[in-house]
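User: For my dataset I need records formatted as: sequence, then structure tokens, nothing else. Please produce one.
Assistant:
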Amino acid sequence: MHKGEALFVTAFAILFGSLTLTVPLFAASTEQALYSFNLNGADGITPIAANLANSWPGSSFTLSASPNSETVTKGSNRTSTITIKRKNTFDQPVTLSATGLPSGVTVSFSPNPATSTSTLTLKASGSAAVGAATITITGSSGSLSRTTTVKLKVRGVKRQ
């Protein structure tokens, strides 16, 4: 166990060779921990191994972009902040990616993976396709995947 954490076994019952445990976990931090314990089967000899992680139902995250609409001129770049909002005990880094980019537009995230915010940089080359696109930003962590969108308009360079 980690310092500041306690594992309380509140009730158990052995019925017909099975063991039922109700185990609430209370953590002083949001660090994910894995608790291991060994149990013997109803015969008192057969070992039963179990692992218990402090990942609660509903532990997740959401993504948002600010601003969520950008206009970029060919040959320049724009930035947007991607915010990762954590739910419950979720505390893992989130890896960001983007799809739906117009031709000639590249994207980068800093940092990536991220834990709270990441700067999205959209860079339009001099040959970028002019027009509008919706870029889908995906955040992935383990089996969880969430999305948000950024509307992008690429315009040509004004001639003087």
